[in-house]
Every structure is written in C-alpha cells, then in structure tokens.
Amino acid sequence: MNVILMSSGSFGVPTLRAIADGGHRLVRIITQPARPAGRKGKLRPTPIADAAAELGEPVTECPNVNDPAFVAELTALQADVICVVDFGQIIRAPARDSARLGAFNLHGSVLPALRGAAPVNRAILDGLTRTGVTTFHLVDEVDAGDVYLTAEIPIDPAETSDTLRVRLADIGAPLVVQTLDGLDAGTLTATAQDHTLATDAHKLHRSDGFADFTDTAKAIRRRIHGLWPWPGVHAVFCPAEGKLRDVILARVETVEGDASHLAPGTLDKELRIATGEGFL
User: pTM to 2 decimals?
Assistant: First the structure.
C-alpha cells in the first residue's frame, strides 16, 4: 500500500515507526509546521518531524492540507490511503479523496464513546475502568465515520493521562498496520457506529484545572490524574505563617476517613487534604 501519514503529536510516533517497518510504502509524511517554544521562542519541530528525522524519512510541514494547491500535490502522489494520527487539522473531503481509499484515523477511545479532542483525558475524568483505540473511516462529522478495528485496555486507578496516552499509542500502532493490511487485502469491512451511544470528549481549557475540594476525594483524584500534565489542577498553599504559594497537584491517592470535622482543602497533621468526602 502507498500510504500518506498525516501526524504531528507524540501519539503518532509509534504508528510512524510501525508503518515504516510494516511492509507498506510511506509516500509522504505530513505534519504541522514547527512552532516557537521556550523563553527564546526557538522553533521546535513536531514529535513526528523529530521521529521521521531519526528514521531518515523526509517530512513535509503543511499549515493547511486543504489548500487547493496542496490537494493537487496529494493527488499527484497517487496514494492508496491516508492515515491520520494526532494531526491537528480538520481534513476536508477534497484532501481525503486524493487517495484511492480515502482517509482513516486512529482515535484514542473505543468509538462511539468519547468523540472529540481529549478522549484520553476524558476517560479518566469520567471514571471509566476501560478504554482503547479505534481506526475508522474519516468523514466530515467529527469521529463519526464507520469503524474498522478496535482494541481495549484497562485503566489503572493510579495512572495519569500522560501514561495512559503512551499505552494507547503503543496498542494503536499495530492496529493501524492491521487496518492497512486488511484494506490492502480487501478483507476489512467497516461497521457503522451507533450514534445514539456517542459521548463527548471536548477540548480541554486552562479553566478545567480548578481544584474544588468540596467535591469527593475520588472525583478530585480523577480530575488531578486526568488533567496531568496539562492544564494541571491548580491550588494555593496557604501556610499558617509565610507567603501563599501556587501549586499544581500531579498525583494523589484517595484515603478513607471522616473529613467532616475539617474545612475542605485543609491539610491535617498527616498531610492529608480534607475533601467533601474522604481525604487525599
């Protein structure tokens, strides 16, 4: 199969390596342009651009894959399929149709659950015990296309969204290769999603990272773990003496116990945080 890979973030790096080793031909790797980062604003390539350089694969930075001139370039490649993973751009029909079989995406949930930009975070925030990945045919509606393959894993109560994302990326890479193999052989059939079962995983915002200690310890733990490392759950440490300090809570455990005698957010002598129900 002649494959175009559109990817930018670290979630797509295992897939890039798997395709490169999987017997299919990468005719083009397309990623978002390098962006300023750090105090000096030095341009930083995407994780996919860095990984492609390690593999000796050329990569094309493109700010808009839907530009008619770029769609003409895609068409000239005569690709069989476009594989999209953590790319960061909406791919319209003309770009998708530039490949013989259109485009498919690797998504970080078992669709139709958790459609949207933050499925890994929302899985933890929603208290799910299992999640997974899905390959599906791209259409105009977000994450609504017919499903090719899925794979599932359990969610450890102690893990944060960054570690869960790594595990999902690792199981997603072979799923992409299986999808390519099935499309190449003509043996893979897509199944329509049950849209009545769709749930939302909308984009995260900085304002999501507010620590409300009147909530239960279990709910706060899910928020802290689901929002790590970004935007992070923020609080203010207020010592009896000394200045206030902004803190970010990165990892916590729930502790059984009656915290009703303490105001939510209070640290007791064992350095447990009192909540609306239980301790952290």
Answer: 0.94
